[in-house]
Amino acid sequence: MMRTILISGASRGIGRAIAERMLADGHRLSLGLRDPKCLIGSSLDPAIAGSEQVFLHPYEAQDVNAAESWVSASLAHFSGFDSLIHCAGIFHRTPIRFNDNQQHEIDQLWQVNVMGPWMLSRAAWSQLECHAEARIIVLVSMSGKRSKGRLAGYTVSKFALMGLCQTMRNEGWEQGIRVTAICPGWVNTDMAARVKSLPKEAMTQPDDIASLSSNLLQLPNSCVPFELSMNCTHEI
Predict the structure, then answer these.
(1) CA dihedral 41, 47, 53, 57 (to 10 degrees)
(2) How confident is the model at residue 196 (pLDDT cuts 50, 70, 90)?
(3) Nearest 5°: phi and psi at 144?
(4) Closest CA to 16 of 2, 4, 33, 1
(5) Residue 236 covered by a domain
(6) Dist CA 140 CA 155 (whole Å)
(7) How many Cβ atoms are within 10 Å of 37's Cβ, its own excluded?
(8) Contact 89/95 with Cβ under 8 angstroms?
(9) How far apart are CA 52 and CA 77, in angstroms?
(10) Domain of 181?
(11) Could you tell me if residue 235 is inside a domain?
């Protein structure tokens, strides 16, 4: 089944890997990016992949008007879409006892990690309801399931995102919208660049998450998992 998919955060990391895999699978892609020029010359460049397969549009998760603009442009380009993959997200090491200079980090984590997916899902919802087997995939994190260490700001935002996923699942169930929250531990991306306790090759790889996402889009409504959790280290 060929799908038309909106993917946020496709310029690098997990989002980039998912977009490349979805294109290889034959799906049509609308990619929301802070800077669409960053994909020029890549396999995701419409000049290379074909404008009938890939559409690029500016998207900034902190901009309250960005979601509506991107959704409207995607509808105009493809005449519809049936899937939404949220990959845009940020990471800050904001602790409980944050200093005054870190207040903005909490606001940014909330705006990008929670309100970004919320506003985009809201803008796309009426279109997703038009399809009997629509899909929403959200890159959450193991930090949306448990708290380790002192990452208060990031963990709070991811717990909230998991709650949003559960409620979207409830809201869309009767219309055939299936939601999956993907919850990895450390993934070998720029976000994990400062992690020294674990070799990069021992981390979960972006291409592996892309493969899981590809499989999710092929499953019938009757067996789509709500949550996929994976961890590259053993946790008790």
Answers:
(1) 80
(2) confident
(3) -90, 0
(4) 33
(5) no
(6) 10
(7) 12
(8) no
(9) 9
(10) 4-230
(11) no
| Chain segment 141-175, per-residue pLDDT in tens | 999 999 988 999 999 999 999 999 999 999 999 99
Q: Tell me how far apart the alpha carbons of residues 216 and 139 are, in angstroms, rounded to a whole number.
A: 13
Strand pairing class (54-58; 28-33): parallel
Instruction: Check if the beta carbon of residue 18 is closer than 8 Å to that of residue 43.
Output: no
Amino acid at 214: S
Residues 6+ apart with CB under 8 A from 143: 151, 154, 155, 158, 159
Specify the long-range contacts of residues 220-223, CB closer than 8 Å, at least 24 apart.
Answer: 220/133, 221/132, 221/133, 221/176, 221/178
Q: What angle do CA 200, 89, 56 make, to 5 degrees?
A: 105
Strand partners, 5: 29, 83
How many independent structural domains does the chain possess? 1
For residue 227, give the 3-state DSSP assignment. strand
The CATH number for 141's domain is 3.40.50.720
Q: Angle, to 10 degrees, between the axis of helix 116-128 and the axis of helix 66-78?
A: 30
Q: Copy the structure tokens of residue 208.
A: 């592996």
The DSSP 8-state label assigned to residue 113 in this structure reads I
Q: Which residues pair with 180 in a beta bridge?
A: 137
Compute CA 180 distance to the chain's CA centroid, rounded to the nearest angstrom. 11
pTM of the model: 0.96
Overall residue count recorded for the chain in this entry: 236
